[in-house]
Protein: RidA family protein
Amino acid sequence: MTIQQIISPEVTEPAPGMWSNCLKVGDTIYIAGLTARDKQLNAIGNGEYEQARVIFQRIEYLVRAAGGSMADIVKINIYVTDIAHREQVWKARREFFEGAFPVATLVEVSALAPGILVEIEATAMLGQGGRP
Structure:
């Protein structure tokens, strides 16, 4: 089985030699922890809801570039700097998933990159999105 890097024109890739945003191994898609930053690496979005929404949209772009859909996502890990604002992340999540949601982990961390309040990583199984 080969590892294929998946790139979407809507998602800025890190500098060469850093990491990959998305890799496809067989029918499994691994998406790195994404944040809400512009091309100059400045934080975008005011608050957890807006940042999470930007991140979920980027995850969708990468999953689609790999030939899947958000329904194929089976696992998400969410990192927040203030767990008291988790409802804002969940509000954004509900805009991208329906039916049986992916399994999820939510963890409060002491810090992320400057201005970043949320980071989300995801795993998807292509063609497996037929859940109720």
Summary: The chain is about 20% helix and 25% strand.
